Amino acid sequence: MMIMASLDFIADHTHAAPGHNAGETTSGPPASEAGGILTVDLSALVANWLALSRRAMPSECAAVVKANAYGCGIEPVVTALVRAGCKTYFVADLSEARRVREVAPEAAIYVLNGLIPGTPPVYAEIRARPVIGSMVELAEWDAFVAGSQWRGGAALHVDTGMNRLGISANDAAALAPRIRSENHGITLLMSHLACAEDTAHPLNDLQIRLFREVRLHYRGIPSSLANSSGIFLSDKAHCDVVRPGVALYGANPTPGRPNPMRPVVEVKARVMQVRNVAKGDTVGYSAGWTARRAARIAIISAGYADGYFRAGGSSDETPGGFAVIGGKRCPIAGRISMDLMGIDASDAPDVRRGDFVTLIGDDLQLDEVAASSGTITYELLTNLGHRYHRVYRTE
Ligand SMILES: *Cc1c(COP(=O)(O)O)cnc(C)c1O
């Protein structure tokens, strides 16, 4: 009930859904009108954060909540994590930082994408910390800090092999005496692993070793290297703060091995109609899927505009993804449209107009759905259901 109260920020879009109960908060269109229902299990999310915290002990476990908390919703996700004790958050940009600040007044908030010219005063205003990723960004931040009273902190991002953001290890070493002597307010030394999910990749060890060298120059300043997969890669990657993102939301941080995380996201879509097609009939755009027998096709209200990727469709040549209908796995029939798709529900004869079928959940977990859609869990999550009814389960 306490969590319910703290989720009041969703109230402006809240509808009491049929079956609404004390452990749920809802948002988006009402369930009775929506084409789909996205359920985010916040207690599973918190359990995942606690499991990652335990694994990373004694390092601090932060949370990466960029891209609207990987599609799950910044406000409910951060509210739940604050209550669980998470104190440090990473976002991609300032608009996300503002949203985190609204629901986490005391948290440390780092902005990963770096400093946009002219924005240092905004960081001071919302008490966020830039992740400084180049020498020009550092110069702009230094000038701001020197000319203001602001000492709210910043991270220094050092590139150890990703070649995306970050100053070079050599620059970091050369800068260290100056950063340690003047008060630049660097509160975190950071780097990012390029191949953490591939435990055998030689770059992992190189990055861990190079980051150790850099950390030697910055003794006394907390350091951070590991994303979700990095936490499982090696204790040597843990440093002082770990930065899991995708694993919080239930994706497998250890590909090829059993998923240690609890599922957080479930997507169900509504059956709009069920039609009979004769053997030899085709279904959907381009007529690329042909019924090999008389079939019952459930047309469901989910398509690529809902974040179900077109690559998950099927044709006579290529199998696609599945939906679970009444406990049975049923294959997608034909191309995915913008708002609709067909499912061959011949093996689920009880399916009726108005029923809900599962697209993510039951035994269709994120990793499988991403693979059958030709993508990765990250892209799947960040595209989730903008027009779905949303249920946030808190118990
Ligand atoms: C996105 C991101 C993370 C989180 O990565 P996951 O693989 O989702 O755990 C951590 N650090 C940085 C710099 C990132 O960009």
Small-molecule components bound: pyridoxal-5'-phosphate
Poorly predicted runs are 1-19
Distance between the termini: 10 Å
Tally of alpha and pi helices: 12
Q: What fraction of the residues are assigned to beta strands by DSSP?
A: 15-25%
Count up the domains: 2
Question: What would you say this structure looks like, in words?
Answer:
The protein has 2 domains: 2-6 and 42-249, Alanine racemase (TIM Barrel); 265-393, Beta Barrel (Lyase, Ornithine Decarboxylase, Chain A, domain 1). A hairpin with a 7-residue loop joins strand 17 (328-333) and strand 18. The protein is 29% helix and 22% strand. Strands 1, 2, 12, 15, 16, 17, 18, 19 and 20 form a 9-stranded mixed β-sheet that branches. It has a 7-stranded parallel β-sheet with strand order 4-5-6-7-8-9-10. Strands 3-11 form a two-stranded parallel sheet. The longest helix has 16 residues, at 202-217. The chain is α/β, with parallel strands linked by helices. Helix 2 packs across helix 4. The structure holds pyridoxal-5'-phosphate (PLP). Pyridoxal-5'-phosphate is lined by residues 64, 66, 112, 192, 227-228, 243-247.
